[in-house]
Amino acid sequence: MKRSIAALAAAGATVLGGTAVLAMPEASAAAQGCRVDYTVTNQWQGGFQAGVKVTNLGDAITGWSLKFTFPDAGQKVAQGWNATWSQSGTTATAASPDWNRTLGPGAVADLGFTGTTTGANPIPASFALNGVTCTGSTTTTTTPTTPTTSTTTPSPGGTPLAANGQLHVCGVHLCNEANRAIQLRGMSTHGLQWFDSCYHDASLDALANDWHADLLRIAMYVQEKGYETNPAWFTDRVNSLVGEAEERGMYAIVDFHTLTPGDPNYNLDRAKTFFAAVAARNASRKNVIYEIANEPNGVSWGAIKSYAEQVIPVIRAADPDAVVIVGTRGWSSLGVSDGSDETEVVTNPVNATNIMYTFHFYAASHKDNYRATVSRAATKLPLFVTEFGTVTATGGGTLDQSSTTAWLDLLDQLQIGYANWTYSDADESSAALQPGTCAGGDYGTGRLTASGALVRSRISTADHF
Ligand code: IDC
Fold first, then answer.
1. What does the pLDDT read at residue 5?
2. What is the location of CATH 2.60.40.290 in the chain?
3. Region of poorest pLDDT, from 85-89, 124-128, 149-153, 286-290
4. Global pTM?
5. CATH hierarchy code of domain 31-141
6. What pLDDT score was predicted for residue 143?
7. N or C end of the chain: which has fewer CB within 10 A?
């Protein structure tokens, strides 16, 4: 559906900023004019996503602000990117971010946001840039999805990998090849040194086809009988699991699972050797994401940043376009578990592009103050929850259903991707499979633990790609 803004205005729609006619510039004044192409790229029950392409048709402007009005009071911008977004009543404003204050003649700013809606089509009638009404178009590429009661709805466009292709970071989001912000939801393996027998055709088929997981995180411990004991075997096994995920249309996070000691620099040389090999092997694959340090602890953000700035160039040299995820201080708590917070990263980010930052939580241990941190940080930093548990931080204890639900609702709303610890049959309450499952080879829902059933019920719902 494509309608011009002029046609909407002619049809009696409210026009912002007075008339739809462009102001004629005075001879001495700067030429003004703009074009806005607004596309609703995705809709789901209660929400939608829109891309807003702003083209400056006049002289250069420094400090710009785009305003538009939603047709319905129930429509609100939830999370925006590439501008500073705000809303008053039904009027939304996207103001120039510090790094893109000047739009030269013909320059384009590609903005976007996810929004909430109570029903009507979220198409504004007109757009104004610095008070000047813009020409342009509005397009809806999707129709609202009917709420589904089935938990096995296939992703539109085939597999997650087929639907999204090569990923990249856009503003604070993970975006697909079509530049749409997406959320990936999946499972983490347990340590390959202990639970390798859980990752073979039947279990990975179940993850892709029954769980509808978008993502397999491959947890390769470095210590605790991990990589350091046999680099060749672990490197091969990680590479083959990236391939197994690719065959099933899933993304794969290669997790360099440092834990003890907590300073990632202890493993700097091992990390360079490992990532040089893995990045070379997987460079032509579109499904690989690199996670360079699982949970730094007892170490400053400065030390983690220095490690990242040495490992990332090694990856980029072999695989230039893959997304890299950087661990954060205090067991990847953005510093909170060490008495700090996200500002140490915001004010001193890693000097690299196309990167995200790790946040981990265990629902029974990490609650409101951690959620508040993620809500704040998500407006400034691209975040990925590469590991979370439904239980306590020990990996055991009781399942905290209400905290898990609060967390996953928040991550859905912010479109932050996640992987659950663990897709394994470990004898601990964080494991999704009952003990003995992997030896038996039946990965049906009858074999799930309480945690597995809860997490599968969230992961297997339809994706909003
Ligand atoms: C735990 C496993 C447990 C194993 C232990 C070894 O669940 O079976 O004995 O590691 O170190 C993390 C870590 C992750 C932990 C998990 C639960 O990334 O390795 O796994 N956890 O303690 N961070 C917070 C919790």
1. 53
2. 31-141
3. 149-153
4. 0.72
5. 2.60.40.290
6. 61
7. N
